[in-house]
Amino acid sequence: MSYKIIGDSCLDLTADLKKDPHFQIIPLTLQVGNTHVIDDETFDQKSFLELVKSSSECPKTACPSPELYKEAFECDVDQIFVITLSEHLSGSYNSAVLGKRLYEEEHGNDGKKIAVLGSDSASSGQLNIALYIQSLCQASLPFEEIEEKAKTFIKNMKTYFVLESLDTLRKNGRLTGLQAFFATALNIKPVMGATSGVIIKLDQARGINKALTRMVEIALKDGGDTRDKVLAIAHCNNPERAEFVKQEMLKHAVFKDVIIVGTAGVATVYANDGGIILTL
Fold it and tell me: Which GO terms describe its molecular function (predicted)?
């Protein structure tokens, strides 16, 4: 059976996966002041970060329209798996669900099967889910079994992140019940995680390196047996920091694979310059 894995543009793919015809990205739109940027293959991270730094307004994102998803579903494959940002971070999941409904209303029962999966995560978390689904598709499992296994994988997957600043998340209302309070005072850096897609604070440390080390400690403690897990690390404009996290993780655990990927537009908006996202 032929398949396609579709993600919104917070699914940060590796360079090789971007060339793989089994993958397709549906772009969100980024806004800084009066400037709108489409988060597609033309996204220039360096220019965007400079734009954000020069603007007094907080960057925002707008999810893809249902029609964009519907158009993506009009392809010559039998099975489609959609992986979106957490519903608590974006309306992308709801747009994909509506896009599926529009497709089915127009095309009826044409035999194509579509699963829309909210990641309860972002960036490297979506990548981890995509890689898992790809492995199941390559093993020729039935569509329904892949969908159920993917839901279980999402439920069990852990997401952690350390950012230089929580201001963008706070100003865009993504820190429900939390405050960005003292994140900059005394150089305190919170160690963050997610529960069912909702951002939570796990700990804090003084200085970015200590916060990253604490994140690693928490991830290793929560990770259990990691030998069959993929460690996915996303970084915003700081590959050295991602490599540091990788090496710290590898000092204490063995993984099926380790992947480092740079953030595209959406994750760049929320992670800010230097942010690190870890999933396993």
Answer: kinase activity; lipid binding
Are the C-beta atoms of 92 and 64 separated by less than 8 Å?
yes
CATH of 159-279, one of 3.30.1180.10, 2.60.120.200, 3.30.465.10, 3.40.50.720: 3.30.1180.10
b/e for 136-159, b at 16 or more Cβ within 10 A? bbeeebebeebbeebeeebeebbb
DSSP symbol at 91? S
pLDDT in tens, 182-224: 445 568 899 999 988 888 999 999 999 999 999 999 999 999 9
Burial class (CB in 10 A: 0-12, 13-18, 19+), 274: middle
For residue range 221-262, list pLDDT tens digits in order.
999 999 999 999 999 999 999 999 999 999 999 999 999 999
